[in-house]
Write a structure and sequence with these properties.
By secondary structure, this protein is an all-alpha fold. It has seven helices and no strands. Keywords: Coiled coil.
Length: 208
């Protein structure tokens, strides 16, 4: 069997495929949680199962990327950067899934419009991250994606402030407490995605 030098020295693409799948999983998790808005306890079983499947698939992808990195000679980026991206995406998927599980547990299916605004924002960031992991060889495109991620992160955080500050004494104490819990869970997802954006920025600085 003949092996060419170019094929031996070609960067491994499996890691990029795993990262893209993780970003796609993040978008799927956000979509599942968004479906909870206006749902009822009778319709949550399927969403619950969907979130658990997405979370499990993300963990499996994270582990598969680790195996791929350990067996690859050449990677598109330093192994540590690829691992941190995968870990960040896996963590973000987990946080979004946990937010959905908490919303179901507390039956907070009538959250204010700010909650849906944030979920739409997180969905857009998932799409941008899916683009970003294919742009490691095009730093100009990656920088443009990073800029859009930054803008979306700032907007999500601003809307979160509006959501929390809009909670008033008009709510019953129990409803207020549960809505605060839901907001904290969604905020954890915002922070997790923001951390990935920070790492994309560090890749730009390092590779430029």
């Amino acid at each position: 069997m003949n092996f060419s030098l170019s094929s031996l020295l070609a960067p491994d693409t499996a890691s990029v495929e795993h990262l893209a799948a993780l970003a796609e999983g993040l978008g799927a998790a956000v979509d599942q949680v968004a479906q909870l808005m206006g749902a009822s306890t009778a319709t949550t079983d399927e969403i619950d199962a969907g979130l658990q499947d997405i979370d499990s698939a993300a963990t499996a992808r994270h582990m598969a990327l680790m195996t791929s990195l350990r067996s690859s000679y050449i990677t598109p980026l330093p192994r540590q950067d690829l691992y941190l991206m995968a870990d960040g995406l896996n963590n973000a998927v987990e946080k979004v899934c946990n937010a959905g599980l908490l919303i179901m547990a507390t039956e907070q299916f009538r959250l204010p419009p700010e909650a849906m605004d944030i979920l739409e924002n997180l969905g857009r960031q998932a799409e941008l991250l899916e683009e970003a992991v294919t742009q490691f060889r095009d730093l100009d495109a990656l920088e443009e994606t990073w800029i859009q991620l930054q803008r979306n992160s700032k907007r999500a955080e601003r809307v979160m402030v509006e959501w929390v500050s809009g909670m008033t004494g008009d709510l019953l104490q129990r409803s207020y407490n549960r809505q605060r819990e839901a907001a904290h869970a969604v905020d954890a997802a915002i922070v997790a995605v923001r951390q990935i954006t920070v790492h994309v920025g560090s890749i730009l600085v390092q590779e430029s």
